[in-house]
Amino acid sequence: MNTTPTPKQNLIFGNALQFKPKDFHLALRKWADELGGVYKFRIITKDMYVVSSPAEIEYLLTNRPKKFSRSSKLSSILNEVSLNGLFTAEGSSWAKQKRLMTSSFSNKQLTTYFPKLELITNRLISHIKMNTTRLDMRNLFTRYTIDVTSSFSFGDDVNTIENSDKMSVKHLNFIFEVIGERVTKPFPTWRYIKTKKDRKLIESVSYIKNYVTEYIDKANKRMESTAVGSAPTNILEAMILAGRQEDHPFTNEELFGNVITLLLAGEDTTANVLSWCFFYLSQNPAILKELRESLAHLGKVSSMESLEDLPFLESVINETMRLKPVAPFLILENLEDTELSGHKISKNSTIVANISYNHFNSTYFESPYSFKPSRWLEQKNQNTDKVFIPFGSGARLCIGKKLSLLEMKLAIVEIVRSFDFKLDCAADEICEEFNFTLNPNKLPMIFSPL
Ligand code: HEM
């Protein structure tokens, strides 16, 4: 049996004082460079194993749900704020939810949804047209993804693009901000002492619960009164229908947990990839030109199919997600004693699958720190699918992958065809921060219509 290497540790704090929460992903990467494919570090009393080698990561992800689950610490933080949906569910409850929800994200459902996505994207373009001088694009992309996810999930046209101070959005953003802080805290202080922020969180969760419950009631009524076989108009209705057809209806708690899970999972992830993409395009005029040229043959985009065969656009998105993996690692737990590369890991340990580690490995990606979308065209037949899994892999693969790719493609196509743009600050002022997802600290941009 191998002794698992560890970074140098402080006797009391372990490695807790050696990184800032916002740089957690960088610490994991640096230690993997020094210590190899499997190592462990310690936060006060808690050991965490980190797995960075592709074969072991594949083993972890494909042996779910039987041998590995999501981290119970992460799940309890999310469940405390009623986010008990597909992301945190385990065992038979997860299997039921995944099976029933998968149909809600089908191509058929996305095709039905496309006209609404088009409407929201047109609003995004009009908003940029009217505010070309200085736009905080990180904020605007977040509003775009909130609008898309809300209308897709429960049919609400919140329109935060044109109206940024909706109460529901303020409460949601506050909930997400606190989750981000709690996930990176070494100790769950909020369970023992409630600060003003913790009390405000309870109010926000209650507001959102009432708000979403109205939509659940509406969707229940609509699905009861509409004819058998009529198409659901949003995920909430699709979940209700799928549950009824299989005789395993979702409970109201499950419906609520899933609606806000989708809002959380669908908002920052997609908004951050879009933000990073426009950061890179603004810094690489030749690549922007090539992208525009690759889209020149496209007429009006009015269906999902028109966005299907656009290899250069897909390469730009892949390259963005390679260099800025918005979900850089996954935190898991082993349900039984495990051995990984000769390292014995006892049951219920925390295991971090460092899924983005090999994005920066020159064995797989030549000049790994350069933004070079064309590598994805050249590498088409090479084996990068084991080391490039930005949406995860195995049974717990991201359910929103197709929706987010569709959303990102449409936004990029329409912005790139309508505007020239540049960063409104020095490029080195833009830094990455880990706040549950990997976001840029800001993204001020100036636009000019083409
Ligand atoms: C660029 C955008 C996105 C990225 C990079 C991303 C990434 C991920 C990753 C890495 C996972 C964990 C997979 C695993 O454990 O193997 C995940 C799970 C999940 N994602 Fe996404 N995601 C994105 C967008 C979305 C959207 C738009 C939605 C829904 C509206 C969504 C909903 C979910 C849900 C519900 C899960 C849990 C699936 C399960 O546990 O079975 N995601 N996502």
From TrEMBL:
Pfam families: p450
InterPro entries for the chain: Cyt_P450 (IPR001128), Cyt_P450_CS (IPR017972), Cyt_P450_E_grp-I (IPR002401), Cyt_P450_sf (IPR036396), Cytochrome_P450_Monoox (IPR050196)
Gene3D superfamilies cross-referenced by the UniProt entry: Cytochrome P450
Record field: transmembrane: none
Alphabetized UniProt keyword annotations: Heme, Iron, Metal-binding, Monooxygenase, Oxidoreductase
Reported cofactor(s): heme
Record has Heme as a keyword: yes
Binding site for heme: 398
Gene Ontology MF terms in the entry: heme binding; iron ion binding; monooxygenase activity; oxidoreductase activity, acting on paired donors, with incorporation or reduction of molecular oxygen
Family: Belongs to the cytochrome P450 family.
Matching PANTHER family: BIFUNCTIONAL ALBAFLAVENONE MONOOXYGENASE_TERPENE SYNTHASE (PTHR24291:SF50), CYTOCHROME P450 FAMILY 4 (PTHR24291)
Protein name in UniProt: Cytochrome P450
Lineage: Bacteria, Pseudomonadati, Bdellovibrionota, Bacteriovoracia, Bacteriovoracales
